From TrEMBL:
Origin superkingdom: Bacteria
SUPFAM superfamilies reported for this sequence: Microbial ribonucleases (SSF53933)
Stored InterPro entries: N1-like, Ribonuclease/ribotoxin
Keyword Plastid applies: no
A GO molecular function held by the record: hydrolase activity
A Pfam short name: Ribonuclease
Protein name as it appears in the record: Ribonuclease N
Keyword vocabulary terms for this entry: Hydrolase, Nuclease
Length: 142
């Protein structure tokens, strides 16, 4: 519902205003429900994987640093990844940690990351690679 129609309803008193607000809320909720992901999207498809050798060279280096416990180039490396996108399997908060995969030619962190999960950061249960800043992930397999 656009602003012009809200103003038209406003002129009709409280009932018109209520109808305009209700219509806006319903339209917004419908959009949210259409865009929301179902529970099936929270688990990666088996085809969404890649070998360590398929990682960019910088990713292979970062994976080695993870297994050695560091040192890491960026202050944010090793911090908790919250999986807000819901693309990785659901785990308790604090399970996942993120690490920057440097991109040659950039003077900032860029979009590439490795996210690993497990109780011991240097011995992860699973690691995932994203080259598009958490829009998609591939599980890293040996």
């Amino acid at each position: 519902m656009d602003l012009r129609r809200v103003r038209q309803h406003w002129g009709r008193g409280k009932a018109g205003l209520f109808a305009a607000v209700a219509a806006t809320v319903v339209a917004s909720a419908s959009t949210f429900l259409v865009q929301a992901r179902g529970p099936e999207s929270s688990v990666l498809a088996p085809a969404a994987s890649m070998s360590v050798s398929a990682l960019p060279t910088q990713g292979q280096q970062v994976l080695g640093q993870i297994r050695q416990g560091g040192p890491f180039r960026y202050e944010k490396d090793g911090t908790v990844f919250f999986n807000r996108e819901g693309l990785l399997p659901r785990e308790q908060r604090g399970y996942y940690r993120e690490y920057t995969v440097p991109t040659p030619g950039l003077n900032h962190r860029g979009a590439r990351r490795i996210v690993c999960g497990g109780a011991q950061p240097a011995v992860p249960d699973a690691c995932y690679y994203t080259e598009d800043h958490y829009s998609s992930f591939k599980r890293i397999v040996q």
